[in-house]
Amino acid sequence: MLDASFDIVEQYVRFPKIERAEVQKIVEWIRAQPHMPNISEGEVLIFYIACKCSSEMAKKVIDTNLTCHTHVDEFFDNLDPEYPAMERAMRVDAMFILPKLTPEGHRVAVGKLIDLNAANFNFADSIKLFLLLLDVFVREDDVRSGYRIVFDTSGVTLGHVARLGIMTMKKLIFYLQEALPVRLIGLHFINIVPFMDKILALMYPFMKKELVDMLYVHSNLDEFYKFVPKNILPGEIDGEELESAQLREIYYDKIRSRRKEILEYEKLFRINEKLRPGKPKNSSDLFGIEGNFKKLDID
Hints:
It comes from Glossina pallidipes (Tsetse fly). This protein is of the alpha/beta class.
């Protein structure tokens, strides 16, 4: 099963204000919860830092993260890298983490299209791939104080927008706000398309003020460079790194190499609702009744 592989002692040295005993208390709390799987101290530390060292918030986010893994089938079922839908997503999308940090020490995760044929695009599968990559990476990398997520909309057409399901978007926004295992400090759109308003119209109804405040729609790259320096970006947007199509293969190879652990992770990193104290939860408890949403009209 996927687990934190970084040097945990080194992380406490890097974050000297964190009291290890507080993190270990959360580990013990999790072990006392009959509905939760055992989670390592390293994994708990990732959530603890993401939650600004709030024990109660970390407990809540860990529970919500596990609950999403259990009930959001579109994002957390069929994670096998050899599954046809996953192989297709890897051909269509470039999902990767920039090799270098920002000057503030933050990580930058990037998503963009490589195959521009809208017929090959599946929004839920793209998000599944992105979240799996993030889950694998954060367990290998040193713990970071913040992440920026960047979506490059180059090549996006109205045909792609038509495939952005409202309920899938709601689940993504919920996960970003309530269950992400890293501290999100910026959500950026670059190389924006003329119909960006139609994409934002899908997002805004589900966004809390905190997420709205960290949403940046960049009309030019010079503004974006103030957050993510040009030199650490992919070559096709004038950066000094490899191009996106090459960077993605580094991370997709990593995912493929961890296939066995990923399959175990999909099976075990879940809530046992039969053992949850109180009332068991289901997808409706998280997102409401799915049938109430109409398809987006893009005309």
